Amino acid sequence: MVDDAQYEFTSVQAIRGSEAKTIAKWEKDGWEVDSRNQGVLRTELTFRRVKPTTFGTAALAAFRRLDRKVQLLAVSAAALVLLGILVGVVVGTQGSGGPSQPTASATEADAGTGGELAQEPVVSSPAVPTPSAEDEPLTVENNADLAALVAITDASVPAVGEFAATYRGRTIEFDGNIAYLNNHGDYTTRYDILIGAGDYSETSTAGPNFQFQDVNITNDLHLTGSNIPDTIGTGDNLRIVARVVDYNSTQELFFLEPISTSVR
């Protein structure tokens, strides 16, 4: 066991009955189960592993172990090196050419031989770009792939990853619900929100495991509509407009970036 070890944590939503499969996947990557929270349809598994020591953190720890006098010497040496670099830049800039010559004013430059100002050219207004088809959100009405995606009942099918790879960066719009909401790490105002497709149900699920990760409800969900609630939670039905970010096949999570959210 590592002394004074620092851990990183992550949470995974596993469908009831598939917990052993999910745990085996994560243990291969060096994670260990820290806790589990069993729900009606899914079980939340929290894993942890020792944070890897990076070069920066190792160097900082070594610096802190130095004697105070040695630390001051190291800082002074670094400051001298930086000062030398700055002096070199200033000298190089000044030596790159002779003294700058004054330039004529815009009025003098535009004046003709008779002292009259040249006529200013007519500048046309730039054309307003026409939105392309790729800027339009994908919906179940205009995109058959999205219609098939939100209708699946097995979140682990290859079609989920194929959709994410094909439409990464595109905007999708669909009816969804908050299947599960929990705090992101140790934060009390930031959350990981598991999104299901269609209306909320305690007995069935549809669509992949969409997730808004590390979001603040007030600032990041961009709640819209005539009736904006003070807060939202598990069981709420939403109309979601979001950007496709990525798909993690190990966690079976389909990450979305919220653009706008309204309560249905």
Structure description:
The chain is an alpha+beta fold and about 260 residues long. The protein folds into 3 domains: about 5-50; about 55-85; about 135-264, OB fold (Dihydrolipoamide Acetyltransferase, E2P) (Beta Barrel). Helices cover about 25% and strands about 30% of the residues. It has 7 helices and 8 strands, in the order βαββαααααβββαββ. A 5-stranded mixed β-barrel has the order 4-5-6-8-7. The protein starts with 6 loop residues before the first strand and ends with a strand. The model is unreliable at about 105-115 (pLDDT under 50).
Highest CATH level, the class of the largest domain: Mainly Beta
CATH fold-level topology of the largest domain: OB fold (Dihydrolipoamide Acetyltransferase, E2P)
Mind telling me the C-alpha Rg? 29 Å
The averaged pLDDT comes out at 81
Strand order of the largest sheet: 4-5-6-8-7
Please, what is the oligomeric state? single chain
Helix percentage: 25-40%
Q: What count of structural domains?
A: 3
Strand content: 25-35%
Catalogue the unreliable spans. Answer: 106-115
The tally of beta strands, per DSSP, is 8
Largest sheet: 5 strands, mixed, barrel
Q: How many angstroms does the end-to-end distance come to? A: 50 Å
Order of helices and strands: EHEEHHHHHEEEHEE
> What is the global morphology?
extended
Task: State the CATH architecture of the largest domain.
Answer: Beta Barrel
